[in-house]
Amino acid sequence: MTELPALGAHPGQPADLLIIGGGINGAGIARDAAGRGLRVILCEQNDLASGTSSMSSKLIHGGLRYLEYGEFRLVREALAEREVMLRIAGHMCWPVPIVLPQVPGLRPGWLIRLGLFLYDHIGSRKRVPASHAIDLRRDPIGPSLEAGYRHGFRFYDCWIDDARLVVLNAVDAAVHGADIRTRTRCVAARQEQGLWRATLHGAAGDSDVWARAVVNAAGPWAGEVGRDVLALPNPPQLSLVKGSHIVVPRLLAGQDALMLQNPDRRIVFVLPYEDDYTLIGTTEEVHHGDPADASISADELDYLLATSARFLRRKPRLKDVRWSFAGVRPLIESGAGGPTSASRDYSFSLDIPADGAPLLQVLGGKLTTYRRLAEEALERLQPVFPALGKAWTASAALPGSDTDDLVAWHRAFLGAYPGLPNSLLRRLARTYGTRSSAILGQARYPGDLGASFGSGLSEAELTYLRDREWARTAADALWRRTKMGLRLTADEAARVERWFGR
Ligand SMILES: Cc1cc2nc3c(=O)[nH]c(=O)nc-3n(C[C@H](O)[C@H](O)[C@H](O)COP(=O)(O)OP(=O)(O)OC[C@H]3O[C@@H](n4cnc5c(N)ncnc54)[C@H](O)[C@@H]3O)c2cc1C
User: Fold this and answer.
1) Which residues, 6 or more positions from 175, have their beta carbon under 8 angstroms from its beta carbon?
2) Where in the chain is the domain with CATH 1.10.8.870?
3) Ligand 1 pocket, 227 CB below 6 A?
């Protein structure tokens, strides 16, 4: 049997879209486009979500503080997405209560009350609970806070695993026929014969692909891709703002997160993380140079520890920091204000030359709004692809959440494997949802899952990550598709690395 040529290998059979960048925006556009019938190639120079999309605060949120900057459209759209994500990714997205202590001398109570009133009412809220004022002297969170804080508010946003959200969008894009090429860098793309001819550099060397249109979804690298890969005379201008997080052993009992106000008007979140940990972030520092080089600075560490210490009775110290990560926000350059007030909105630049192939460039954005961004990207491309299908992603579950009743599924899943530890089943359920059974198969006891790598990580899980989710290294598996890196010892992590290298 003769093998069919790969998608886009020939100008006679070009792909419809070549998407450069496998972060949340590239993966979201790939899924949406493939589901509408386009033939899509996505290339990611490293691992999926290896850029900004695994470095976020992991909140699907309206962004309460963006109301201060009058960003009503963005906040409304983002708030509405909370409900969508609860619907389509319910196994890994849930409401998180956030306590906002009032700080004397900073935002007055009436202003916060007004902001929360808007927050509760402008975003089609259904499943996310409403906010309320709390007396910190009587509320269960009170004893965790320093004595000076008496009044506060509890409001709700949603939590999600950012890197898994990217991977699941890519998985679903592939289900709809997209060709997802990780560790494949787009090194050049030029117009030829009314198409794009792009050179992709992957493990097997260089190869050319042909596409009717290109999407630059390279996040903080979008400017570099515009300049060096697409050779544009006016590449996108983005301002790059680094944000860092630290992870420490759990500081707060219960489900509450905290939103802490600083005298410089910035805010820091203290979030429950992976059962036994607390995630603290974020900072805002103008970043110069390659986004891949971002790492937490000593000043940022001090800032996060000092902010936490100002509010919390249990003060995290430098020696408590188990992990830190830093990412670079690609923000639309406004020229005015600083990084704190720079818009988190997104925009597009679309070029449809009369005798050439279109280029759509994605600028800015938030994790929260990726799905709407993808829908809008395809609306823009509609004139190029008149037969494009309708918008479909608002109601289509992502892989793992594809069941009518997630609660009933969860209960049945926990009961179906009596010989496996409950902690393992719970972790798998919130990581893989309904796909967990593809890992567990007929297993009855832990020994049925192949070699054990520690803390419940089995060969069966690694095999799934390699075969179904493009994991190729220990970091792909331990820090992006799971957070087992927090739990494994250095020796155990080295065994995982060796397993991938076999
Ligand atoms: C500290 C911090 C906290 C945040 N918190 C939140 C939050 O809580 N909620 C929220 O909604 N948003 C949050 N955000 C924003 C959100 O994370 C980003 O807007 C989003 O992840 C950007 O996704 P992206 O796909 O545009 O970029 P990226 O995720 O960076 O993806 C771009 C990809 O392009 C690839 N690439 C670059 N050049 C090439 C090439 N030549 N060929 C192939 N691939 C290439 C890169 O490797 C990269 O993987 C936060 C951001 C930061 C930095």
Assistant:
1) 399
2) 406-501
3) no
